[in-house]
Write a structure and sequence with these properties.
Shape: elongated
CATH topology of the largest domain: Chemotaxis protein chec
Distance between the termini: 69 Å
Structural class: alpha+beta
Radius of gyration: 34 Å
Number of domains: 2
Helix content: 25-40%
CATH class of the largest domain: Alpha Beta
Number of strands: 10
Length: 331
């Protein structure tokens, strides 16, 4: 974006032109000169600005979802937000990672390849300490992880991948699965050193500990779904595609909602004095005749007429009639 001149700078420029200190024609010539911008072929920019913006939105959603999940799971203060989204060679990413850190390698099925999530040891050990009942203190012993610590961390990060899947649903239905947990980046070779990757950095605070979580997405792995990262497709086509699935899920969950059913055997009115003197073997006469159907209520609303009986040695009722709601019957 071009620099905007202040009013003082504009006045000084006009004054210099009017006094002859600057030549207006020379300024015009400078504007018509071809502007040359340097380009480093080792840092090939293979992601468009539109795609970078879409990836930013996806992982902003991921940060919000993961904040909620970890807050409930660790029972402590958790805050995460996207600090930066950059594209750079894979070799440069590996060199920027600490010599000893937590590297979660996972496969984003059905995509062919692997992603990696690099978690700062301060953050990883604060989470581990909370999982084991501690205060969430950060200490670094990443060079000698025990089998128990490795297992707990792997399970913790596998749960975070379920949130990753949810964040990506607006673009692609991924099924990420943990492949490996590594501590030395020199032993990790996802793609060739010159391959372009996009690195999403999440600024993370857990309790009193803070650090970065970096998610590395190689271009070669997500190349097949890059067209779907278009804002036009994401905001319109994908929203329409997901609608039937959302309705199906909503209907499925609604059908599982429990309902309270109650059958009235009849009603009776007695005085308070009679109620206070009720005892064992006393009989209360109901206003319901034995050959009349009973009323079945759903919640507080009368819905069916039923008759009592038994089914497999259990008390049951059989529906004999449906009570029409007011305003629903045909006139």
């Amino acid at each position: 974006m071009a620099d905007v001149l202040s009013q003082g700078e504009i006045d000084a420029l006009l004054s210099a032109i009017s006094t002859g200190e600057m030549d207006a024609e020379e300024l015009k010539k400078e504007d018509t000169k071809k502007k040359i911008r340097s380009y480093d072929f080792k840092r090939a920019l293979r992601f468009s600005k539109d795609q970078i913006r879409s990836l930013t939105r996806i992982h902003e959603n991921y940060a919000r979802l993961l904040t909620t999940q970890l807050s409930a799971q660790l029972r402590t203060f958790v805050q995460m937000n996207v600090a930066s989204v950059d594209q750079l060679p894979y070799d440069e990413f590996i060199r920027s990672v600490p010599k000893m850190t937590i590297l979660n390698v996972f496969e984003p099925f059905p995509l062919d390849g692997r992603f990696v999530m690099e978690v700062n040891p301060n953050i990883a050990y604060a989470m581990l300490d909370r999982m084991l009942g501690g205060q969430g203190e950060a200490y670094n012993k990443v060079e000698n992880l025990t089998e128990i610590e490795t297992k707990i961390m792997s399970q913790l990060f596998q749960r975070s991948l379920e949130t990753f899947r949810e964040a990506w649903l607006s673009v692609e239905e991924l099924d990420p699965v943990m492949d490996d947990l590594e501590v030395n980046p020199q032993f990790l070779q996802l793609v060739s050193p010159n391959e372009t990757v996009v690195v999403i950095s999440l600024s993370t605070t857990i309790g009193e500990s803070s650090g970065m979580i970096n998610i590395c997405l190689p271009h070669v792995v997500i190349e097949s779904i890059l067209p779907k990262l278009s804002v036009h497709l994401w905001m319109q086509a994908k929203k329409k595609d997901r609608l039937p699935g959302e309705l199906h899920s909503l209907k499925s969950n609604l059908k599982k909602a429990p309902l309270d059913l109650a059958v009235e055997l009849g009603k009776s009115e007695i005085t308070i004095d009679e109620f206070l003197h009720l005892g064992v073997d006393d009989i209360i006469e109901l206003d319901q005749l034995i050959d009349e159907s009973l009323l079945l209520r759903i919640g507080e609303e009368p819905k069916y007429r039923v008759q009592p009986g038994k089914m497999k040695n259990h008390v049951a009722v059989q529906i004999t009639d449906i009570i029409e709601e007011e305003g629903t019957s045909d006139e």
